[in-house]
Specification:
alpha+beta, globular, 12 strands, seven-stranded mixed sheet, about 35% helix, single chain, 2 domains, Ribosomal Protein S8, Chain: A, domain 1, Hypothetical Oxidoreductase Yiak, Chain: A, domain 1
Length: about 375
């Protein structure tokens, strides 16, 4: 997990400042620039590099053409205390989702549990990046997202796309680090598919179908004419599991919000479901972490199979990666800073200088890492 000494490393706070300057120059108002920037950098810190700053150029393009709204607040469609619905108004999804998690957490403290759903928001980035907003308060949280305008995953047994990868994330407090589950109803994501296709890579297995329904490891099949599809989680063998999960996520995000695939598409965006739970309202906060802590320890202490060095909990590797990056600097996936450079020049933002060395003072920036 050590940073590659040949790759430039950046102080995460400097990357947040840089990205925030870009979004502020793109006319995002209020706390939106910093919230979007912090959410994207958090994804990179946790190792979700396809959903971190790699998304920033696309978001900036959407702001420039008006497909992402830069200013204003969501409209409250319904509010029953423990159940809230927002009209997202195409506002930045990373900002909207963060606000939704915070509101659900606040309301859960009052009601025991609370849900917030968002319709017509923009893309929300990496779901795992939002979870500690609740778990650091001792709350459990569930977050799901889908894009009604997109389709890249076929239902199990079919070969025409109906769903997006439909991610689902869960944050579970324990007596140590929280468990951070981030998965999707498809066997992989559109972000990784696009990256592999651009870089000439292949899937590590038969993760997709071509347009004729034949299994393939070629990500280019998704961009063919006609396009292929990603397989649901479980693949050709047990894909009914991912198919069922996709149906659940679509109902939570689109059904509950009242906007989805049955409506005319509005462009790259997201329907979102958030639910927070306060364990104190159930069996008690102390009893909750006693149970989750025991289970976490039982998993970590489990004897590993041949070829595995240790059993890890979901989110454990990401949190270890984040701690290292905060100490020694963050290495971005190749090409991300170059992709942002034209926007920086156009919008007048100054890119950060790389750090001069792990844990050493960078004379050009005067900071300790």
């Amino acid at each position: 997990m050590a940073a590659d000494p040949d790759e430039p490393r950046y102080r995460p706070a400097d990357l947040i400042d840089y990205a925030a300057a870009l979004f502020a120059a793109a006319r995002c108002d209020g706390d939106k620039p910093h919230a979007i920037a912090a959410g994207l950098v958090e994804a990179d810190l946790l190792g979700h590099t396809t959903h971190g700053l790699q998304l920033a150029p696309g978001y900036l393009r959407e702001l420039a053409c008006g497909s992402m709204s830069a200013r204003g607040e969501p409209e409250v469609v319904a509010d029953r205390g423990a159940a809230v619905t927002w009209e997202g108004r195409r506002l930045p999804g990373v900002w909207l989702a963060g606000k939704a998690v915070d509101l659900a957490a606040d309301r859960a403290v009052t009601h025991g549990l609370a849900s917030v759903v968002i319709r017509r928001g923009h893309h929300i980035g990496c779901l795992a990046a939002f979870l500690r907003r609740a778990t650091d308060r001792g709350l459990m949280v569930i977050l799901a997202s889908s894009d009604p305008a997109g389709a890249s995953v076929a239902p199990f047994g079919g070969r025409r796309a109906v769903f997006t990868p439909d991610p689902l994330a869960v944050g579970i407090p324990t007596d140590g680090d929280p468990i951070l589950i981030d998965m999707s109803a498809s066997i992989t994501t559109n972000g990784l598919t696009d990256r592999l296709r651009r870089e000439g890579g292949r899937f590590p297995g038969m993760w997709a179908l071509d347009a004729e329904g034949r299994p393939t490891d070629d990500p280019a099949a998704l961009a063919a004419d006609p396009p292929g599809t990603l397989l649901p989680t479980g693949g050709a063998d047990h894909g009914h599991k991912g198919y069922g999960l996709a149906l659940l996520i679509e109902a939570l995000t689109q059904g509950l919000s009242g906007f989805g695939r049955a409506d005319p598409p509005t462009g790259w965006g997201a329907s979102v479901f958030v639910q927070a739970f306060d364990p104190a309202a159930f069996g008690g906060a102390a009893e909750f972490v006693r149970q989750t802590g025991w289970t976490a320890a039982a998993c970590r202490d489990n004897p590993p199979v041949h070829g595995v060095d240790a059993v890890r909990l979901p989110g454990q590797r990401g949190l270890e990666r984040k701690r290292l990056a905060l100490a020694e600097g963050l290495v971005l996936h190749p090409g991300i800073m170059a992709a942002l450079a034209p926007y920086a020049e156009r919008l007048g933002a100054i890119p950060p200088d790389p750090l001069s060395g792990a844990g050493r003072r960078n004379p050009s920036r005067g900071v300790d890492v």
